[in-house]
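dumping this here before i forget
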Amino acid sequence: MNIIQHNFPRTQFVGEETTKRQIVLHHTASGPGVDGDINWWMSTPERVATHFIIDREGVVHQLFDEKYWGYHLGLGQKHFNVAKLPWTNLDRHAIGIELDSWGPVLPHTDGQFYPVKWDGRRYVPNATCKPVKYFYEYCEKNRWKGHLYYEKYSTAQLNALRELLKELCRRHSIPSAYSNDMWVVSTKALRGEPGIYGHCSYRFDKSDVHPQPELINMLKQL
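structure:
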């Protein structure tokens, strides 16, 4: 597995060593390449970052050692109220992995698909971006978080994610068993129970990661 180590500033993550119990999957909601995501995180003081980003070619980029932590869940007491739990800093014990992907996309009048943007009233295709080459279509009755189309996670990304998850689960003794409830807000996730989750496992308003069948199959085969 090819891992590129980045010289991510120590001021952009929390240099406290903690045990890790959870792995949380995200997608970047951005265009191809990891530089823009890294530069954005470096431009803010909040220490928001994930440990890893996997680009569309399947290259794993590591920003900082997983023994440290950063803020990537964005949880407040209102999120724990769903499970009638007190707020807990789950970021301290979670390894964050981003898949480089736009997330939801929409068709434009030119016949191509573009990332979504909010125009103040509704989501519309953002044709100022480059069109998305590959997308996954959900059926109408099973829209994911209100959207019908999502940029597909590439085969190379999913292959790299599989190998990274295997290594991280082994290294940190995190169970790799697939859980069907990772696609809904999960009491297990909010309790901090060990396992692999999506950002959507903690928050209703998050669409990452989306349940692309190839991703589900890979997780089931871990």
